Amino acid sequence: MTRFTVNNQPIEYKLDPATPLLWALRDASNLTGTKYGCGTGHCGACIVDVDGAAVKSCMVTIAAIEGSFVTTIEGLSRERAHPLQLAFIAANVPQCGFCIPGVIMAAAVLLKRDGNPGEDAIKAAITNICRCGVYPRLIDAIQRAGRAARGEETIPAGARPGIDPADAARVVPALTPARD
């Protein structure tokens, strides 16, 4: 059995030690914010923070991180209140959204290391592939999140994600034929 901490919760996985971290997180822990993209470590959709490093979870086994501390997008802030999440929403960075959890996790590791990264540092740290091409907005959003984390700027919270249940479905009165 493999043990490590995920989002501040100690976990013991009863999986084959050769299981990729990605599948332990998604399948065994139901943390589906970490995405499966290419499975070869190229796209970055599966990046999580492992002991302060941006790690492509499809490329590391659970045995290799025994005793580590793992943070996923869910552990960053379930309420989407982390400065990176707020800055990405405010700058309309997410398009299809598939790559965004991995990008945010790579950016979170960067901001822990360098609270005021320049454009070159961001480009070096964020190697994720985004088919929507959000890169210019991405750089601005990461720099804005850094300013917010340093207390130099406030990013207003956006609307809560999702659809209000009252708006999701409505009962429509049945159409009845007019009677004479």
Could you characterize what this model shows?
Residues 1-76 form the 2Fe-2S ferredoxin-type domain. Keywords: 2Fe-2S, Iron, Iron-sulfur, Metal-binding, Oxidoreductase. GO terms for molecular function: 2 iron, 2 sulfur cluster binding; metal ion binding; oxidoreductase activity. There is one protein chain. With 180 residues, this protein is an alpha+beta fold. It has 2 domains: 2-72, Beta-grasp domain (Ubiquitin-like (UB roll), Roll), CATH 3.10.20; 83-149, Orthogonal Bundle (DNA polymerase, domain 1), CATH 1.10.150. The protein contains 7 helices and 5 strands, in the order ββαβββαααααα. It has helices spanning 21-28, 73-76, 83-90, 100-113, 119-125, 135-149, 165-168, and strands spanning 2-6, 9-13, 47-50, 53-56, 69-71. The protein has a 5-stranded mixed beta sheet, sandwiched between helices. A hairpin with a 2-residue loop joins strand 1 and strand 2 (9-13). The longest helix is centred in the C-terminal third of the chain and has 15 residues, at 135-149. It starts with a strand and ends in a 12-residue tail after the last helix. The mean pLDDT is 90.
